[in-house]
């Protein structure tokens, strides 16, 4: 599998209760590798059964570190070094209350400066599936790369999946523009909020069913409510979540996507693959950061 997407540095600040404006709020702070695309690649490799490659763009400031971290997770990285922009950085504010919900402050940096010059059709040699991070749709250069990669994949008969990535950025991009950009893709992996935003429908099941009229297979991640699977305008399964005690929800959706895609590649059907995604999501929320456990 080839993943094309963002590689960023996560600064995770875990605090309890509201932030105290104008003064200090005590927090446990860690710097960790992240990025939706990179996280999906790492979880897919962790779930096993497939070789995972990653195309991303980073600054010279953190290139070596990110390459080592990806390789340690079993991913074969192809990182373009940007000499003009630093590696993207995301500050993850995680309230350590019961839901461990997170808020992101995002400086995309080099990650959204991927452009058509970074693409080569040879990247698809031996590839059975292409996965694109939705963050690539939020800048003009990386949108052009998405179009080129999608055309290359369709020419080779390689199925393509995409995770919309961010409801906030999607709203700025526009629904019609997004749906035009994903035309021809095989799998869409939105969150519940993203599915509702993209359709204007308030109920997740209705939203997922409607989206599956545009993309053949839609699997919506619903956190503690599991996942919905839809094909051709009909919800075909509701897969329950596994029990978990959340510490940090950063990257839980990426974990789901990585395990789901790895399972598809090893022959699982969509419903069974969604069960694997829910297993990975439960494991992810009990960890700090967006990456899987280090290999033994």
Structure description:
This is Sugar kinase. Keywords: Kinase, Transferase. InterPro entries: Carboh/pur_kinase_PfkB_CS, PfkB_dom, Ribokinase-like. Residues 2-295 form the Carbohydrate kinase PfkB domain. This protein has a single domain, classed as 3-Layer(aba) Sandwich (UDP-N-acetylmuramoyl-L-alanine:D-glutamate ligase). 33% of the residues lie in helices and 25% in strands. The protein contains 9 helices and 13 strands. The strands form 2 sheets. The chain has a 9-stranded mixed beta sheet with strand order 5-4-1-8-9-10-11-12-13, with helices on both faces. Strands 3-2-6-7 form a 4-stranded mixed beta sheet. β4 (52-59), α2 (63-72) and β5 form a beta-alpha-beta unit.
């Amino acid at each position: 599998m080839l993943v094309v997407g963002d590689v960023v540095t996560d600064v995770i600040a875990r605090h309890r209760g509201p932030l105290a404006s104008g003064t200090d709020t005590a927090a446990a702070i860690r710097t960790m590798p992240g990025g939706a695309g990179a996280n999906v690649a790492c979880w897919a490799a962790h779930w096993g059964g497939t070789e995972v490659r990653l195309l991303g763009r980073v600054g010279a400031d953190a290139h070596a570190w990110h390459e080592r971290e990806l390789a340690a997770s079993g991913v074969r990285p192809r990182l373009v070094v940007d000499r003009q922009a630093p590696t993207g950085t995301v500050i993850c504010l995680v309230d350590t209350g019961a839901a461990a919900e997170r808020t992101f402050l995002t400086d995309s940096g080099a990650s959204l400066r991927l452009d058509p010059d970074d693409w080569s059709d040879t990247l698809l040699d031996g590839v059975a599936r292409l996965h694109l991070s939705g963050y690539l749709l939020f800048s003009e250069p990386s949108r052009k790369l998405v179009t080129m990669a999608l055309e290359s994949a369709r020419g080779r008969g390689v199925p393509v999946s995409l995770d919309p990535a961010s409801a906030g950025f999607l709203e700025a991009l526009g629904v019609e523009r997004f749906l035009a950009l994903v035309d021809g893709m095989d799998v869409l992996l939105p969150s519940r909020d993203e599915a509702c935003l993209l359709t204007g429908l308030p109920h997740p099941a209705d939203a997922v069913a409607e989206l599956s009229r545009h993309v053949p297979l839609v699997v919506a991640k619903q956190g503690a409510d599991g996942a919905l699977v839809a094909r051709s305008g009909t919800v075909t399964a509701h897969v329950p979540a596994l029990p978990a005690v959340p510490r940090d929800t950063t990257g839980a959706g990426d974990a789901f996507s990585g395990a789901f895609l790895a399972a598809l590649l090893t022959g699982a059907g969509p419903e069974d693959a969604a069960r694997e995604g829910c297993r990975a999501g439960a494991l992810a929320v009990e960890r700090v950061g967006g990456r899987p456990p280090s290999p033994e």
